[in-house]
Design goal:
single chain; five-stranded mixed barrel; 2 domains; eight-stranded mixed beta sheet; alpha+beta
Length: about 600
């Protein structure tokens, strides 16, 4: 589809005004657009000003103006190269084809840029124990893949001396170094002057810059007012990336799980897409064809539906700093933070990882600052203070393939490589009084090492709660769909979502563990409010886990799924219809 319009200021109103794109994200025009966004953000966005401050450099950083080069970054002026830029029409590789070097433990506060990119199947040059000394002396320009080269060119054009690239700044064959740096991501990206996203590229050889395959065409035509108007025709740029109705693919970078935290943590993120530059910051979004930075532009929900929402409205404004350890999340006044975390988990779990064991570390950059700011205790991708609610995740039933659990503990969503969801309205919930966390308890003397929870962490939970025997039946049409019966004699309105394919031929015994109850319909206390005009029958909605017995004599179980069930409340029949009512709490060990 083509876009018809006039350039801003060139029309007498006969045609709609649209901004022209650079059509080359490596051009001077694109660079000037990025610089304009940077200036607007620096001057006018108080929620982004942390990026303008000088911060301690990361453990390792690439120096793009090392001392063995004749060019000094402090005197490197865009105007000095303007003639070359004008002639070439883009940022010239010849002017920037210069070697770089790795620097370690620099005791300096300075600006730096981060690169967010896909590794893909092609392994770029990597920092290893064996080449660390060599790279600290010099890294040959020819050794760097195209994406790294162009990111360095762009960094030099910003007159910034340092750039952080994960594969070159973390020792890839040193597990301890990799873990330490993983939990420092919140500082690395939060303190970055700008994060550059190679959004269009699936590997480092595909480059950062791109040229639009369809160039804008200019025409001069008469109008109804007997005047001449300049109009431009260009390809209509889709902002509904990944929208199945539009048939648009998701850009490679936005599929990557590691980039989720990189985007949320960065105060400024500049996407290099196939067609144009796209800007994200804590205050809003913009693109070349809609260059005004707005908090809620009509198109922003397409490029980054939830990530941008979280960044602009919540995470960027540090909403987690308002949660205190003493108050805890289970209090009604603090439910918004629980909702935000559940939304983060749901969005993050959709994304791809090469190694399943990275499921938790790839989110460590978000977990670590929340824990540090609030004093809340993290346990395997959940929070101890809201644990009973956080446990109620379930595998998305629309996932194309049934999930397979790859690690322990079974109660954590990180144990399974599948999209997970939360499906209840937080303000309508009450914790069941009989459900309590026995182990682990909050530890006031916990380790000061932020990477400690990601080394081993808690694998066993002990919960005091009500257990009810249940039966599981195979669905007749789908071999990974099941039906749950909480009581053989009474048909209840149940929803059961299994975590994975179950082997029902085994002699396992199954139980339902009640954790949370819908609070609109607490008839016993007289606090009833019909949930909708069309559903005025009082009912109780229970939520909990479905467990398989591992060692029944020790009440040890593994999680196999999630359930919710509705119990209609007819006069005094509530007790007769709710099997959990007569069950005494048991001490349950979840493995």
């Amino acid at each position: 589809m083509l876009k018809l319009g006039s350039h801003a200021g060139s029309s007498d109103g006969e045609f709609p005004e649209h901004s022209l794109t650079s059509e080359d994200t490596g051009s001077v025009a694109a660079l000037n657009t990025a610089l304009a966004w940077m200036e607007i953000c620096s001057i006018g966005h108080s929620s982004c000003n942390i990026a303008d401050q000088l911060h301690p450099l990361p453990t390792r950083i690439l120096d793009v103006f090392p001392e063995f080069l004749s060019t000094d970054y402090s005197t490197y002026q865009l105007s000095n190269c303007q003639e070359k830029f004008t002639e070439a029409g883009s940022i010239p590789s010849s002017a920037n084809s210069l070697d770089v070097r790795l620097r370690s433990n620099i005791n300096e506060n300075a600006r730096y840029v981060c690169l967010s990119h896909c590794w893909g199947n092609k392994q770029p040059i990597r920092l290893l124990k064996s080449n660390k000394d060599k790279m600290e002396k010099r890294i040959s320009w020819a050794e760097l893949p195209l994406t790294f080269q162009e990111a360095i060119q762009f960094t030099r054009s910003l007159k910034v001396r340092y750039i952080w690239i994960d594969s070159l700044c973390i020792i890839q064959d040193d597990k301890e170094d990799w873990l330490r740096e993983s939990v420092s991501m919140h500082l690395i990206f939060r303190h970055s002057y700008l994060t550059i996203g190679a959004t269009k590229s699936s590997n480092p050889e595909q480059g950062l810059f791109s040229k639009a395959p369809f160039r804008s065409q200019a025409y001069r035509i008469p109008t109804n007012h007997s005047s001449i108007s300049d109009i431009y025709i260009r390809k209509e740029l889709s902002h509904r990336l990944g929208d199945p109705e539009e048939g648009d693919p998701i850009p490679p970078l936005l599929k990557r799980a590691w980039v989720y935290q990189e985007r949320l943590l960065s105060s400024r993120f500049l996407h290099f897409t196939e067609d144009e530059l796209v800007w994200e910051c804590n205050s809003g979004t913009a693109c070349e064809c809609h260059p005004q930075i707005d908090q809620y532009p009509w198109w922003s929900t397409a490029l980054a539906p939830t990530e941008t929402f979280l960044k602009v409205t919540h995470f960027g404004n540090d909403v987690f700093s308002h949660v205190s350890h003493d108050s805890g999340w289970p209090h009604i006044s603090n439910w918004p933070q629980v909702f935000i975390w559940h939304r983060i988990v749901s969005e993050y779990s959709l994304l791809q990882l090469t190694f399943p064991e990275d499921r938790l570390p790839a989110l460590a950059g978000i977990i670590a600052p929340i824990s540090l700011r609030t004093g809340l205790d993290h346990v395997q991708g959940l929070w101890l203070e809201s644990l009973l609610v956080d446990l109620l995740w379930f595998v998305d039933p629309d996932a194309r393939h049934p999930a397979r659990r790859h690690t322990k503990p079974s109660w954590s969503w990180t144990s399974i490589m599948a999209p997970v969801l939360y499906d209840f309205t937080h303000e309508n919930l009450k914790l069941v009084p009989d459900a309590t966390v026995v182990h682990p308890k909050t530890n006031p003397n916990r380790s000061t090492d932020p990477s400690a929870p990601f080394r081993s962490g808690t694998t066993v939970l002990v919960i005091s709660g009500k257990l009810l025997p249940c039966k599981i039946e195979q669905d007749s049409k789908h071999n990974w769909a099941y039906h749950l019966k909480l009581d053989a004699d009474i048909t209840l309105q149940n929803e059961f979502c299994s975590d994975e394919v179950l082997d029902l031929e085994t002699s396992s015994e199954y139980y339902a563990l009640l954790l949370v109850r819908n609070s609109y319909t607490d008839v016993a206390s007289g606090d009833y409010e019909p949930p909708s005009f069309f559903d005025s029958t009082p009912y109780v909605q229970n939520f909990g886990l479905v467990l398989a017995a591992e060692q029944l004599d020790q009440l040890s179980f593994r999680r196999i799924g999630y359930f919710s069930h509705r119990v209609n409340c007819v006069h005094d029949a509530r007790e007769a219809r709710d099997g959990f009512y007569y069950v005494d709490p048991s001490m349950v060990r979840l493995l």
